[in-house]
Design a protein that fits this description.
By secondary structure, this protein is mainly alpha-helical. The chain is 64% helix and 0% strand.
Length: 160
């Protein structure tokens, strides 16, 4: 079984990677869509912070969470502020994981419309869902970063 320390190692690595991506891109590119219909890197990290608070803070630890999931994908803002929010949220996630009881039932149940795992979940399963979201969006952000950086560079074939 995965220890809390191992869980946080991988979770911290995904969060740090996402912070690196938005930091490299800066405000303008982090808030830009790489192609029609794509989320921006900013919105993905913003969404991940909401996932952490909702699943770890709300369902695992029992805090009241007021979440508007749909609006998360329209968020824009300052990269510096997002990085600071991530630092605060990461510290909170450490506290939530330390206090979690992995084999215990959730303290509140996710609404049906949430895209988490089906069935009656344990706190450990909900935390695994947090990592799942962070890992998949970290990879997505790396790809979006590559597209956004490449799009900003002149095409050598046309710049002669």
């Amino acid at each position: 079984m995965l220890s809390r320390e191992e869980f946080m190692f991988y979770t911290d690595r995904a969060l740090s990677g996402m912070v690196t991506v938005v930091g490299e891109l800066g405000d303008e590119r982090a808030n830009r869509s790489a192609y029609p219909g794509a989320n921006t890197p900013y919105t993905l990290l913003h969404h991940c912070l909401a996932v952490m608070e909702t699943w770890a803070g709300g369902f695992v630890r029992g805090r009241t969470v007021d979440r508007d999931r749909d609006s998360e994908f329209h968020a824009t803002g300052s990269v510096d502020e997002l990085i600071e929010r991530t630092r605060v949220a990461k510290a909170q996630l450490h506290r939530d994981v330390a206090a979690a009881e992995p084999e215990a039932a959730l303290l509140s149940e996710p609404p049906r419309e949430y895209l988490g795992p089906p069935g009656n979940l344990t706190q450990g399963a909900a935390l695994q869902h947090v990592f799942e979201e962070l890992a998949q969006h970290h990879g997505q952000m790396e790809t979006l970063r590559d597209v956004l950086i490449t799009a900003a560079q002149p095409d050598p074939a046309t710049s002669r």
